């Protein structure tokens, strides 16, 4: 299979027909008259409207279409992971099902992949969304992600991306990690590039995301930062987390010593600071011990991921 196109869907009954027509036309126009093979993987994320019935109709009449049905709504990350698990293409392209991504950009993504990149990220430079509720939070999040992870991507939230099939098969997504695909895949040394893509205004329904997702994105970003920076040295991560507790321990201990040396007449809070000192010290030691145990786990289970092993003929004619 040359190409797998993955589209997660949730209550997109109104847009399915137009989406199918555009995606099919774009895929068939990539290599007209050749043996180019593609598949369209439509993942229904527990829709409650007529989305599922329409997907069954498409699957019945078009052999290129495959449908994955979820019993309930698990989220976009789970839907994308299900698509990756079932994809058979040499290249995998993902896009949203709300018609805001333009399938005509498939050719640009494939040409960039053929230049030697493993991941190609779409950049909605001229984004057709509301400024206050969508674009400004997205700009702030992308700036923060770039500075914390070192992966400079202007638009991590754009679903229109292309991946090499053998690379994306090694990725395992959970929580809301689909927004951090490029930083996560850089863990294994993947080469990535960002290209400008077309973005269109929403025609049907309303956005499934709002300002409330900021907290989830922040927590997931902390996880990504830990994986990127401290995957092989977890003791350093736990040590950094323990520094505030160490400073609090020293501060409360100093206050306790000062009160004792000056013999302040008020004894109402005489046991407060010693108790706080013990509490913060316990938290600091606890984090340090967790870091040591994590180091032991990493060292015991240490391995190197090998991309491929090729037979090489040495001068003596032996294959190694």
Commentary on this structure:
This protein is an alpha/beta fold and 320 residues long. The protein has two domains: 3-229, Alpha-Beta Complex (Spore Coat Polysaccharide Biosynthesis Protein SpsA, Chain A), CATH 3.90.550; 234-300. It contains ten helices and seven strands. Helix 2 (51-61) links the parallel strand 2 and strand 3. Helix 5 (131-149) packs parallel to helix 8 (214-230) and helix 9 (234-262) packs antiparallel against helix 10 (272-300). It is elongated. Residues 302-310 and 312-320 have low confidence and may be disordered.
Q: What is the 3D form?
A: elongated
Quaternary organisation of the protein chains: single chain
The portion of residues assigned to helices is: 40-55%
Instruction: Name the CATH architecture of the largest domain.
Output: Alpha-Beta Complex
- H-E order: EHEHEHEHEHEHHEHHH
Low-confidence stretches: 302-310, 312-320
Instruction: Tell me the name of the CATH homologous superfamily of the largest domain.
Output: Spore Coat Polysaccharide Biosynthesis Protein SpsA, Chain A
